[in-house]
UniProtKB/TrEMBL annotation:
Keywords, comma-separated and alphabetical: Membrane, Transmembrane, Transmembrane helix
Transmembrane segment boundaries: 45-63, 75-94
Membrane found in the keyword field: yes
Tree of life domain: Bacteria
Protein name, UniProt field: Uncharacterized protein
Amino acid sequence: MRDLILQCAGVAGIAVALIHGVLGETKVFARATIQPESLRTLIRLVWQAGTVAWIGGGVLLIAAPSMGSESARHWIVATIVAVYAFAAAANAWWSRGRGFGWKALGAVVVLAVAGY
């Protein structure tokens, strides 16, 4: 059962990452005025680097049960929980507790810890 929970955390992590990427492109950068243009490109790439990293974390959470190593499972969960928990805390601080981003990120953390 804990393997399934950990894999659900991975799927949720990937979903959150994809939503993050899409909202960044459609809501944030569609309205943002950033000059010079090269700086705008850099900020977009850094934004999407987070998206890619979260997708990678989700993939690792999905794969962790099949690795057959408790040590690998431990370090994957610990690392991904730290990454997502930081993102959740930053999002909660930035949004002053409103919105769903920090809650979705927090749900991934809770599922990953439960699947540990």
